Structures are given as C-alpha cells and as structure tokens.
Amino acid sequence: MAKLTFKGGIHPHEGKELTKDKPIREVLPKGDLVYPMSQHIGAPATPIVAVGDHVLAGQKIAEAQGFVSAPVYATVSGTVKAIEKRRVVTGNLVESIIVENDGNYEEVEYPAVKPLEELTTEEKINMIREAGIVGMGGAGFPTAVKLSPKEPEKIEYIIANCSECEPYLTSDYRRMKENPDLLLQGLRIAVGLFPNAKGILAIEDNKQDVIDMFKEMVRDDDKILVKELMTKYPEGAERMLIYACTGREINSSQLPADAGCIVDNVDTLVAVGRAVTEGKPLMERIVTITGEAINDPCNFKVRIGTNYAELIEEAGGFKTEPAKIISGGPMMGFAIFDTNVPTTKTASAMTCLTDAEVEWLAPTACINCAKCVEACPEHLVPKNLADAVENDDEERFLKEYGMECCECGCCSFVCPAKRHLTQQIKGMRKIQLGKRAAAAKK
Questions:
Q1: Which of 26, 166, 328, 429 is the most exposed place for a label (fewest CB within 10 A)?
Q2: Chosen domain end from 220, 246, 278
Q3: Residues 134 and 268 in one domain
C-alpha cells in the first residue's frame, strides 16, 4: 500500500538514532526559573504577582490579555525575585517573571474536576484556555482559540501531528512510546468538541513500532484513525500534513478549519488531556538535547522556565566545542549565541553540532538547476523569490507568491550553489507581514 505524502520535500540525514532509544528522564531545575510573558502568538501575558511574593507550582503568575493570549503558571515553588526583561532563544529581551526555586516543589491544590461526560463543550474549552495551553510544536498559537472555529460542525478531522519530521528531534516519539494513553486521551477530548469530527494519528513510517501500537489500541474505536505517512521532510508542516491525510489543500490566507481540519502537536494534546481530566495547567514538556557535540544526547521532561544550560549539563555537557547551537532542529530551528536562556512552552529541542556536521561554504551564483523548484513543497520557484529580494523588488516577490512559503528550508538544503534562499525569503515575508499588521491597525 502506498504511503501518504505530498509532492516535493527532501530526505535529510535524520540523526534520530542519538536519542530515539533513550527513555525520557525527568529533570528538576537547580537555579532560578525564568517565565517570559510572551511564549505564544498574540498579546503577551501580564504579571499578577509582585517581587517578594511566595508562589507554588501550578499557581497562575501572569494573566492572558485578550482572546489570542495565554496565561503563565509557576512550575516550582519559591519567591518572585524580579520582574524584568530577560533574553530568550530568539535573542530578544522579553518581560519575564524570575522565581527563585526553593527546592520544595510545593504545589497548589487543584479544584475538583467534574467527570468528563458531565462537562459541556464550553467548559472544556474554558479549561484548556485557563490552563495556558498553546501549540507546542513551534508556532505557539493558543489552543483554545484553535479549538473554537466559527463553524464547529464543519470540522471533520482533528489531526494529531505525530510525524516529527524535523531531523534529530525525538521528543514526540518518546512521548508516544512511553505515554500513548495520555495522547489518546487528549485526542479523544479534542474530537469530542465537534459533532462530526474524527481523530487522525498521522505518523511517519520511520516510527513503525508506534504505528503498530496505536493501531492495536484504537482497533475498536471508529472515531480514531491511524494514518501511515511516508518519511519525508517537511511532512509535519501543517499544510503538507493536511494534504497527505485528506487530499485537501489550503493556502497562506486560509486556516486548517477552512479544510475541515484542526492540527495539534503530540505534547499539546497531552496537555489538553491533563487540563480537562485533572484541572492542571501547562507546566512541563519534553525537550530533546542532542547533536554530536553533546556527551549524552537524550530527552528530558522539563519544567517550563528551566535554563537550557542546566539541560546541557544534565546531558553530560559538551564533548567538543560545538560549531553551531540551534534552538530546535537543523531545518527550521535557528542558531543561538547563548545557552543561558529559559525553556518555554514552545521549546522543543537544542541541537549542538560539531564542525564536521556544519557546512562552511560561501554562496555562489545560481546555476539554474531547478533543484529548489523540485524540492519546494509549496510549488514555488525559490530562486526567483530570492532574486526579487536581492533586487528589493517587493512587487515581484508578491506576484511570485512569496507569502505562500512555509520557510521549511528545503530549497537552501538542496541548492548546489549554497544560496541562502530560505533566509532571504523569510526576511522579505517578515517585512510584508509587518506591513500587513500596520495596515490592519490603521
């Protein structure tokens, strides 16, 4: 039987063998916890604690501001040490709450939760909103907003993005392997919010063991389907995933809901399940610390706000000086200059590469080979888009559908001239999105 997939894409070195067979290890933070107020798309949260306050794990410390926003919770007990700007993985300085960990890990008493069957749809969505859950696959869109489309009766599929196509990352795989019940619980809750929906577990075929496991677990459940996808990057990108699973296409001006779909990451659905059945806010996630420069690459269960430098130390530190440290994976992640930054709700990985793993080649002139066209999953001509950027030709960039780029990096990966295609296109897209936002405010 042919595997489900999309046209285009690439097959980069996976690098998953470094961590995929190592069980998740829980790590307790040693130093201060830093909670940025902006860990999601939308309005930053606003602190509701003051310097000197004693807080408990599970206590809300920042309130959401507006519909597209999310609250923030303490993940340890301790004292609020400061409220000030701190650097995050992007290099930006972001207003943050700093909590001095007292090492006791005292937790709040959570309110009693009604049985699942007694909860209304509105109550479930409010619990998800109040838990501060956002998309944990990278974008950070508030999950309660995603689960509140204008026409819920038109949603046909809730797709659990289990593909984890980014090289080196295995946090979703280990979560599925070790906590399949938690994922299924969250997916069933999400499916139950919509009268006509079914759930899809979309898994790449390099994870055959979890494919077989989930097929057995949902054998008698006619509301949950397991779909086996071809292992190919970027299979897990939202538009590619929807097309592979349903054959439906959307563009950059549409939402997955326009195709009758909602897509959620593995850890996001686990958090949904816990919020609705236990009343617990989002306080932890699985993070991959990996790369040939790391002594003991592995996956950690991390309390949000933990310092990345502590995780690298927990992984045995560097066995050699890394040539490049990437927040995320090598395809869609970005290089960072300082590991003294906090993990956040969207922190999936830190990849530390040796000099042998990094290409140090200067870009040369395009040879018009069209490899970037063949690889592009959005069917664009990246070479033309990059030319438009180099000539500061915004009109041509838009005419060539530059805003449809999903910034996956396939074009840069295959380019024999080593042109920085993705970076150029991404920069122009950011400029155009900024102009759209400014126009909308007017």
A1: 26
A2: 278
A3: yes
Backbone conformation region of residue 414, classed left if phi is above 0, alpha if psi is from -120 to 50, else beta: alpha
Contact by Cβ (8 Å): 297, 19: yes
Number of neighbours of residue 195 by Cβ within 10 angstroms: 10
Q: CA 286, 291, 292, 297: dihedral to nearest 10 degrees? A: 0
Structure tokens at 202: 């979309």
Strand partners for 100? 79
| 268 domain residue, yes or no | yes
The answer to whether 40 and 66 are in contact (CB under 8 A) is no
Mean per-residue pLDDT over the chain, rounded: 96
222, 248, 278: which is the final residue of a domain?
Answer: 278
Q: Which domain holds residue 431?
A: 371-441
> Do residues 309 and 340 make contact, with C-beta atoms less than 8 angstroms apart?
yes
pTM of this structure: 0.95
Q: pLDDT-derived band of residue 57, with 50, 70 and 90 as boundaries? A: very high
pLDDT in tens, 123-141: 999 999 999 999 998 779 9
Handedness of CA 186, 35, 78, 80 (dihedral sign): negative
Per the CB < 8 A criterion, the answer to whether 382 and 397 are in contact is no
Of 160, 207, 208, 157, the closest CA to residue 182 belongs to 160
Q: How far apart are CA 77 and CA 101, in angstroms?
A: 6
Instruction: Give the integer Cα–Cα distance in Å for 36 and 43.
Output: 12
Domain count of the chain?
2
